[in-house]
Design a protein that fits this description.
Methylates ribosomal protein L11. The protein is of the alpha/beta class. 27% of the residues lie in helices and 30% in strands. It has two domains: 95 residues, RRM (RNA recognition motif) domain (Alpha-Beta Plaits); 190 residues, Vaccinia Virus protein VP39 (Rossmann fold, 3-Layer(aba) Sandwich).
């Protein structure tokens, strides 16, 4: 399969936001490179540029029309002053294999490891989740997922029912089961996410404890002891009554997928239903969590 690579010069402060926009615009993958080690941008004669320290590289299917992608990127505040980029065709390679080689085991909290299914677990006696995300979001590498995994690791989930709202690859659902949850229900609007979650549950030998549904098919009057929703600020805002209704009185909720500047608005909305803890922060991203009144 042929590919097109779009490389943008950025800074450490803007790279993550640019990466998110590239994924929204259809990039199959996004990687960060040290700009000092990859001098691919040639200044025009007589031009002096102040380079950022990071190159953000998006990989697109070769049939992608790049002009609309570039036009959309030029509207971003992070790129408004000067957008320096390079578009190039790439030779056909096994990009999935290259991505697999860069996905390493990661530890969250005191006992939880997320391990690629094709690698050996560093601590065989720890709580290990074997993961192959397939086409769904969620490897643990993004701060929003990491914040939720750390939160789950700190809970007593023994005999608890958990709902993973927007389950993606199933990483949070499977972690909850491995950490002691009796039953987990995964909800997602994407059928590919349900497939990925079910496959990963089987890979971890806990498929009997995870059930996945499209929202239209979920059980009536569903309520759980613990609910985690790692999606985006917009859906968290719009679906606040739905998500809050999934938590039993006295149950616990964690919300992520939101930027720090979005936290106060979401705190005000969910504060009507929950006693919220201080906001947990990881870089530009954060997590809200609390107990339902």
């Amino acid at each position: 399969m042929a590919w097109i690579q779009l490389r943008l010069n950025a800074t450490a402060d803007t790279a993550e936001t640019i990466s998110d926009h590239l994924m929204e615009l259809g990039a199959a993958s996004v990687t960060f490179l040290d700009a000092q080690d990859t001098p691919v941008f040639e200044p025009a004669p007589g031009e002096t540029r102040l380079w950022g320290d990071t190159d953000v590289v998006g990989l697109f299917d070769a049939i992608t029309e790049m002009e609309p992608v570039i036009a959309e990127l030029k509207t971003l505040p992070e790129l408004a002053e000067q957008m320096t980029y390079k578009v190039e065709a790439l030779e056909d390679k096994d990009w999935e294999r290259e991505w697999m080689d860069s996905f390493h085991p990661m530890k969250f909290g005191n006992r939880l490891w997320i391990c690629p299914s094709w690698r050996e677990a560093p601590e065989p006696d720890a709580v290990n989740v074997l993961l192959d995300p397939g086409l769904a979001f969620g490897t643990g590498t993004h701060p929003t997922t990491a914040l939720c995994l750390t939160w789950l690791d700190g809970l007593d989930l023994a005999d608890k029912q958990v709902v993973d709202f927007g389950c993606g690859s199933g990483i949070l659902a499977i972690a909850a089961i491995k950490l002691g949850a009796q039953e987990v229900i995964g909800l997602d609007i994407d059928p590919q996410a349900l497939t990925a979650s079910a496959d990963n549950a089987q890979r971890n030998g806990i498929e009997d404890k995870l059930t996945v549904y499209l929202p239209k098919d979920q059980p009536e009057n569903l309520q759980a002891d613990v609910v985690v929703a790692n999606i985006l600020a917009g859906p968290l805002r719009e679906l606040a009554p739905v998500i809050s209704g999934l938590v039993k009185p006295g149950g616990q909720l964690a919300l992520s997928g939101l930027l720090q500047e979005q936290a106060e608005e979401l705190r005000a909305i969910y504060g009507e239903y929950f006693e919220l803890n201080p906001t947990a922060i990881d870089g530009d991203w954060c997590r809200l969590d609390g107990i339902k009144r």
